[in-house]
Design a protein that fits this description.
By secondary structure, the chain is of the alpha+beta class. The chain folds into 2 domains: 76 residues, Ubiquitin-like (UB roll), CATH 3.10.20.30; 78 residues, [2Fe-2S]-binding domain (DNA polymerase, domain 1). Helix content is 38%, strand content 15%. The protein contains 5 helices and 5 strands; from the N terminus they run ββαβββαααα. It has a 5-stranded mixed sheet, sandwiched between helices. The longest helix is centred in the last third of the chain and has 24 residues. The N and C termini lie far apart (54 Å). The mean pLDDT is 93.
């Protein structure tokens, strides 16, 4: 066992881990974080997606010891003061049916929009390519991400014009 310390959803956390424990196992089993899901265990489905220093990663593929000193964000840490524009849009558009893929998709889309606020449709599809959704297909997801990007760009433009 080895102690690690990292930021989890904005708070410092310390936990003892085995050298072969995945970040997903530690988040769910030791820290009680439930939104990253165990889907395939091979990094193929994206259900376990979290943000590691702002980048979307598959927590089932990362050893917990590797996150020492880094920042991990799960869906529990997004929109802590209320839903983000992206979360609201997914809800308002009834994008998800079963919801199993929702945390991973939302985090992957959030990482994309943080890095590229005006993505093309191809860029959205590429960013979400590692997130499987068996219920909805991808059209409603892609359209919602593009709509949020467009709306956010309009709002930031109008704020700059008023300033």
């Amino acid at each position: 066992m080895k102690p690690i310390t990292f930021q989890l959803n904005g708070s410092a956390r310390s936990v003892w881990v085995e050298p072969n424990e995945t970040l997903l196992d530690v988040l769910r089993g030791k820290l009680g974080i439930k939104t990253p899901k165990e889907g395939c265990g091979r990094g193929d489905c994206g259900a376990c997606t979290v943000l590691l220093d702002g980048k979307a990663v598959r927590s089932c593929l990362i050893l917990a010891v590797e996150v020492e000193g880094q920042s991990v964000t799960t869906l529990e840490g997004v929109g802590q003061k209320g839903p983000t524009a992206l979360q609201k849009a997914f809800i308002e558009n009834n994008v998800f049916q079963c919801g199993f893929c929702a945390p991973g998709v939302i985090l992957a889309a959030s990482a994309l929009l943080a890095e590229n606020p005006k993505p093309s449709e191809a860029e959205v599809r590429e960013a979400l390519a590692g997130n499987l959704c068996r219920c909805t297909g991808y059209e409603p997801i892609v359209k919602t991400v593009l709509a949020v990007a467009k709306k956010t760009a309009r709002q930031s433009t109008s704020r700059r014009v008023r300033s």
